[in-house]
Amino acid sequence: MIQSKGKLLIVDDEKIALKSLVHVLKKDGYDVTGAQSGMAALVLIESQSFDVVLTDLKMEKVDGMQVLKKCRERNSETEVIVITGYATPESAVEAMKQGAFYYIAKPFRLDEVRQVVGEAMEKISLKRENRQLREQIESYEGRVKIITQDPSMLKLLEMARQVAPTDCNVLITGESGTGKELFARYLHYNSNRADGPFLAVNCGAFSEQLLSNELFGHEKGAFTGALTLKKGLIESAEGGTLFLDEITEMSSAMQVKLLRVIQEREVLRLGGTSPVKADARYIAATNRDMQEVTKDGSFRQDLFFRLNVVNLHIPPLCERGGDVVLLSYFFLKKFATLMKKEVTEISAEAIAILESHDFPGNVRELENVIERGVAINTGHVIQVAHLPDNLRELSARSFKKKEGRIPSLEEQEKAYIRWVLNEAGGNQTFAAQMLGINRVSLWRKLKVYEMEEGNGS
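Predicted structure:
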């Protein structure tokens, strides 16, 4: 069975013109429905979905503009082509302002109609592809897929799975870019509150006054410009989870207010006199040392105890074993899909550099590196040339800790030889000259380190 090129509705009160267009576009492979009046078209649009609607402008009772309006109301993706024998600049402008895809004046050529319909279908296809891509990328967040094979991370995930249904507050600590918000979402979507909202706020991104308004909301007339009642995030997170990122950046006064909300499970809006119920789970995160900030008094100890019922500490990427390669390929697939590119591999040389880099920006930095590699790629493989300059410089990766320890001299020499070979384009003679040794010595080292002679990988 031949697949239809798209579903069309043709609306014209002239029977011969309608029959002609239906016949021609059916022969072109479209699934075509005809309507001999605007009223009939409205009934069809209400009950069916069409990719493209071609409508005459001047019709009795219900004209083309009303058909166009109904299409816009029912399905924003439907493209409408307006056809008229009474073409004027004013009517054309009005049709386009109302969202028409194109405006064709009678008498028209069939080739012109075919071309415009084809272009409208292309636009429909593009919009659908973009929507599918957005849904696909959003699904990475919605399912909260945490990619790891590191034993310490797997233990952390197991603890998160056990803690998630308990509804207790959780404090997540770790360096910037390690994935603290991702873990917060993971806890939420594996909890009994998964159907409720997940709301997040960065406590360091607002002044005290703005943060207070964001969290607690305000009553109408609470201050100049407060024209309507506004629910705060605490109230809006009812039945769900509120994620408080960079919690240590919150002022002392705000900490007191938050402590009371957590204790009493109710919130008082700014300008309000009666508290309202606030049944939310609280997950907080920080990249700072909580022992230090509670000791120096910048963070209240009682609030710390309220939030730190369970602590999840996320290790930096440089301590997470083989996660660099695993995450690299995850991000490669993600961005190749998003950018519609056929980049499917990362070269051994590029992998070696990624593995030897300490990634001070953690997972977020790695994600940016792979996104850049896909963006500037014209082939199928991310090569060393697609990596940022700082990763290609030996100084950026010398003497870094590997899995929490200082690497051995042998490991450093092996990494150095691999880097020099890459710089020499795999030419061992040039590489030996750069290393200050003869080619036989280099050959022996490649054998000892079990590196391929061709490229040092």
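Summary: The radius of gyration is 31 Å.
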